[in-house]
Amino acid sequence: MSLPALALPGQLLGPSSKYTSGPGTYLHASNIYASRSGQPAATNTTSKSHLNKPTLTITRLSSNSATASLGPVSERINNTNALPKVGDVVLGRVTRCTMKQVNVGIVVVVGAEGKEGLLVEGSVCAHEIQGVVRKEDVRATEKEKVDVGEGFRVGDVIRAVVISLGDQSNYYLTTAKNELGVILTKSENGNTMYPINWKEFMDPITTETETRKVAKPL
Question: How big is the CA angle at 177 (ends 182 and 173), to the nearest 5 degrees?
């Protein structure tokens, strides 16, 4: 598989048999995934410890540099404060959690679900757009048993879908699909964690686990 022009957190980049994991990526179950949004690159190394395998890295993209950094695909990545539409996949950062909802600052409007070329067509928002995941929209089953505090923490990066334009101040979002939920999070010790199942992330340094509503890696 070839590397995408733009990688999103949690996106599969390639097998560990072909690459080694570098900055901006993480290794899980013999595959390498993106741990942040940006432009992936495979760099050859002379280190014997890497067995001559290229090292995968992700160059972070800011809203000001996204268009310039993507080169030929810059026309497909809009650096504007685009407004999401119902059905759009969005990426956002959790800003507040209560017993009834999760407040999210939307930073990327990826595009419509299932759209061909989804991962390289989208808009990096110039300013955060406010969204909300209500308790009943966290997952599709056993909604009455949902504990918002166990599924999300402030600072988590999530993948969600817009289900309603909501009120005047917030878009209504859902994470009630396997591929939706938390895609990037840090442990209480400040280490970037990786998913080990549908409801837990693990700290690679301490091996401690924390519960989340885990998004299935793309």
Answer: 70
